[in-house]
Amino acid sequence: MSCEACRTIPPVVPTGYTANGRYLDIAGIKTWFVDDPADVTGPETASVGILGVYDAFGLASQTLQGADRLASQLDALVLVPDFFRGDAAQPAWFSLDPEERSRVLTKFMGGTAALPQNSEVLIAIMAASKARFTAVQTWGAYGLCWGGKVGRDVRTHVNILRLEKVDAERLTIPHIVLASKDEPADVVKEYSQIISGNGIGGHVETYSSMWHGWMGARAQLEDEHGCAEYIRGCVLSEFPPIQLNSPGQPRS
């Protein structure tokens, strides 16, 4: 069961932003690709790669803008696969009566957005990406809401679909959690205690003025405070250029 905010807050449809990247085919999946636009050497020499897993609303403008920002700030290539193949959750669903909305969302989460099948897609995309971008020495991953639950390889949660203590206990690499005011405070506290004491490293922070999804398709970038917190979240989500146990292993 996802959090109530995830099921009731509609996405924001922004205007005026032109994304910097382009689409590639990675493992048969349409994938948004962006590298540092100031890097004239191109993606073949990027040493840091990041795989972004979007929220239930798919390739939203705010999600692509976040990918662009990470690529520019980290001199990295960023990939955002279209797991839903164009069939993402629709804003119109949130104007339905509660019973019908619940039915539609439950069907979506158990079908197109089912976690097991999409975790397999994630594994295939990671393998294909490592084979294609051979200059990348360090891979990272982040997930927005739904994306934070797709497979154990996605190790950064931003706007959590369903934060669970067991996920924190399974961590083997540094992990960042940026929660909103809509996440259960007791579970966030448990998560923080586990991460602070596991000897691996990480960061847990609640953005007390932000709503569920403020870093994804629900981001309100035309609002001064909403935009400022979105940017702050992108900065905190940056992946330091550290070497993992083995090249190409996902990290956060």
Automatic annotation (TrEMBL):
Q: Which residues form a coiled coil?
A: none
Note the Gene3D superfamilies from the entry. alpha/beta hydrolase
Q: Name one GO biological process term.
A: monocarboxylic acid biosynthetic process
Record's InterPro entries? AB_hydrolase_fold (IPR029058)
What's the name of the protein?
Alpha/beta-hydrolase
Originating organism: Penicillium chermesinum
